[in-house]
């Protein structure tokens, strides 16, 4: 990995390089995505099945597009019992964490006859997209389904591309069933997002779409936003490690590589005040690369988006961390909890040398669907809040309204909205 002196210019150059990975930087795909969406919107199943045949090599019909109970039973027979137990143990932690996020309706009343409040209502139908092909991520299934189920969503459906034999990956299916999915449909890509956004004869329309995917899926979610809600437009994975001379270089190197293996556009960045640590981490990475199975992907990721930033002070390092706003941030320093209090922008924060990023991916409980491409400055991890909506409640008696009705009239007339003013006046006419 490149060891670079952290300066104002190098930080600016790095940010510009990282932002180029955003799905918003690929306008050449948008017209194709728009064409797919429009065709599915107009032709429904006909277009959906046509694209599935073209892109996935699978012929679907209204009778085969939905996963059957027999297929689910077959998936359970194929999965290793030990993996099933791991999924179930992970679910315990994920549910427990998200249960603590639940919000409830509330109402406040006063003696003069007012009631103000907030009504919390779960979304009715949520669509969850799960990648297929080489990307088999049962952990993402759990992270998307559990908060929706905890929120009380009435109907949770999943779409995922079929494999060449026309079936869904068994691990994905089992994870979905264990997490509490209601229905699974064999559809992938932009065409699946369009089906969830507008509905087809076979796939119901969703109120919200969540889940990761390739550039076509990301741009499709962006295109249908407004017709439905979405979680975010996810970019490539990111990890940043903030470390000082107390950090174990072997641990740091291993953690950086854990994200670099996702894809060639993933970023892995170490920010440190210690040149010795920087050099030792770089050497450890070279050693690990000789043994890891995805070393070609990792190497390309590191060549383009792998950096070791050498800061003069911890304050400079923290400033860089907040400016880059990484998806995952590990803090491996003296007084790591004190440092954590100064972090404003990060999707998930891992504290200490035994809190490595994969712990959050699979087992700790917090959601691993996180903001990327600097959006941690204003976005949060996927949570129960993403699957509910809130309505304001307002009740005033005549006795409560009377003392302030003239103030409301004055406000409305100041905005030249005489019908607004009249709506109040008529209630106090002689």
Unreliable residue runs: none
Strand content: 15-25%
Q: Mean pLDDT, rounded to whole units?
A: 95
What structural category characterises the helix and strand content?
Answer: alpha/beta
| DSSP, total strands | 14
Question: How would you sum up this structure in a few lines?
Answer:
The protein is α/β, with parallel strands linked by helices and 430 residues long. The protein has 18 helices and 14 strands.
Walkthrough of the structure:
With 430 residues, the chain is an alpha/beta fold. Helices cover 45% and strands 17% of the residues. It has helices at 8-19, 30-43, 45-56, 69-78, 81-99, 138-151, 170-179, 189-198, 215-224, 249-260, 275-289, 295-305, 314-324, 336-340, 357-362, 398-401, 405-414, 418-425, and strands spanning 2-5, 106-109, 114-122, 125-129, 155-160, 183-186, 208-210, 229-230, 238-243, 267-272, 306-310, 328-332, 348-351, 388-396. Strands 1-11-10-9-12-13 form a six-stranded parallel β-sheet, sandwiched between helices. A five-stranded parallel β-sheet has the order 6-5-4-7-8, with helices on both faces. α5 packs parallel to α7, α6 runs parallel beside α7 and α10 (249-260) packs across α11 (275-289). The radius of gyration is 25 Å and the shape is globular.
Spell out the blueprint of helices and strands:
Layout: E1 2-5, H1 8-19, H2 30-43, H3 45-56, H4 69-78, H5 81-99, E2 106-109, E3 114-122, E4 125-129, H6 138-151, E5 155-160, H7 170-179, E6 183-186, H8 189-198, E7 208-210, H9 215-224, E8 229-230, E9 238-243, H10 249-260, E10 267-272, H11 275-289, H12 295-305, E11 306-310, H13 314-324, E12 328-332, H14 336-340, E13 348-351, H15 357-362, E14 388-396, H16 398-401, H17 405-414, H18 418-425
Parallel strand pairs: 1-11, 4-5, 4-7, 5-6, 7-8, 9-10, 9-12, 10-11, 12-13
Antiparallel strand pairs: 2-3, 3-14
Helix pairs in contact: 2-3, 2-8, 2-9, 4-7, 5-6, 5-7, 6-7, 8-9, 10-11, 17-18
